[in-house]
From TrEMBL:
Residues 1-27 form the signal peptide. This is Leucine-rich repeat-containing N-terminal plant-type domain-containing protein. Pfam families: LRR_1 (PF00560), LRR_6 (PF13516), LRR_8 (PF13855). The keyword Magnesium does not apply. It is found in: Membrane. Keywords: Glycoprotein, Leucine-rich repeat, Membrane, Receptor, Repeat, Signal, Transmembrane, Transmembrane helix. The keyword Cell wall biogenesis/degradation does not apply. InterPro entries: Auxin_Ser/Thr_Kinase (IPR052422), Leu-rich_rpt (IPR001611), Leu-rich_rpt_typical-subtyp (IPR003591), LRR_dom_sf (IPR032675). SUPFAM superfamilies: L domain-like (SSF52058). Its main location: membrane. It is a single-pass membrane protein. GO terms for cellular component: membrane. It comes from the Eukaryota.
Length: 319
């Protein structure tokens, strides 16, 4: 009769109803018990249970009811994205270290700290973590050994935490081979500019370096960034709290022309001096901001580049 399902199709539906899904259709795997336990602890300590509903409908973080949490087919937690999630509490390194398959962690723009107040120190490294964002929280210091917890890291952002006198130490070299993006703006670093970031032998994959709004000082060497892959460079506004002045200096005509991959560069509000660089061979350059320095000479940029050289009284005149 027209409109009726053919008998073979009807039999297949009945078998599915009676026996369950066939073997080639797989449901999401339940969470690994260790991952589930670690996530429940994390939910309680960060207030994610209350504000994001973690664990309210189900104790399984891999069943789709935990907002921002993703798992692989084996039930291992691989990604936690809870930026601007309203989290307010304590992030413990001992809990994070148990999520051994975690590859992405974004807890930016919350109100998190740690038992010590510092960025959380892991007892064992997270070997699979590729992306870490803890920007704009309440961490007050960078623990010695913090960076060692992430040997495969590709992108990290720890900007705009209320740190007193943080310091970049040698353990930042832990992930030098894989690192593509390093952002640590507005932390108050008061140390010599870490020019090793511009060495392609040390950081061969680095594309983004953003250290704006700190108190870094010293002279940028002519070799900085030469033949590197850096496309975005921001070392603007290295202002000291004591006198409101910048002590970051150097000749930009010596190091900028060698940074062939540059797309956007921000050097404003420092004390760079000397001639403007010849940027005509920087074929990818789109934004160049060197406002409020002590530069001189006639601008020489390719068409289509947004250039800000305001606050340099000698620009336009021969050096």
């Amino acid at each position: 009769m027209a409109g009726l399902m053919p008998m073979p199709g009807l039999i297949a539906l009945v078998l599915v109803a009676l026996c369950g899904l066939p073997g080639w259709i797989t449901a999401a795997a339940p969470a690994n018990p260790d991952d589930a336990a670690a996530m429940r602890v994390l939910a309680n300590w960060t207030d994610a249970a209350a504000v994001l509903g973690w664990g309210v409908k189900s104790g399984d973080p891999c069943d789709g009811t935990w907002a921002g949490v993703s798992c692989n087919d084996a039930g291992r937690v691989t990604s936690i994205v809870a930026s601007r999630g309203g989290l307010d509490g304590v992030l413990r390194g001992s809990d994070l270290a148990k999520l051994t398959f975690l590859s992405e962690l974004d807890l930016s723009f919350n109100r998190l700290t740690s038992p010590s107040g510092n960025l959380p120190l892991l007892p064992t490294p997270l070997q699979h973590l590729r992306s870490l964002n803890l920007a704009s929280n309440r961490f007050i210091e960078i623990s010695e050994g913090f960076f060692s917890g992430f040997p495969a890291l590709e992108t990290i952002d720890i900007s705009n935490n209320p740190m007193a006198v943080p310091e970049l130490r040698a353990d930042v070299l832990t992930f030098s081979g894989s690192l593509r993006s390093f952002s640590a703006n507005g932390l108050g670093f008061m140390q010599v500019f870490p020019d090793y970031f511009g060495n392609p032998l040390v950081f061969p994959a680095l594309e983004t370096l953003s250290l704006a709004g700190n108190s870094l000082f010293g002279k940028i060497p002519p070799s900085f960034g030469n033949n590197s892959k850096i496309t975005y460079l921001d070392m603007s506004s290295q202002t000291h709290d004591i006198d409101g002045k910048s002590y970051l200096t150097g000749r930009i005509d010596e190091f900028i022309p060698g940074m062939k991959s540059l797309v956007e560069v921000r050097l404003d509000h420092n004390i760079f001096f000397g001639p403007l660089p010849d940027a005509t061979k920087l074929v990818n350059l789109r934004v160049f901001n060197a406002a409020s320095n002590n530069l001189c000479g006639v601008p020489n940029f390719a068409g289509g580049v947004s250039v800000d050289l305001s606050g340099n009284p000698h620009v336009g005149n021969p050096c």
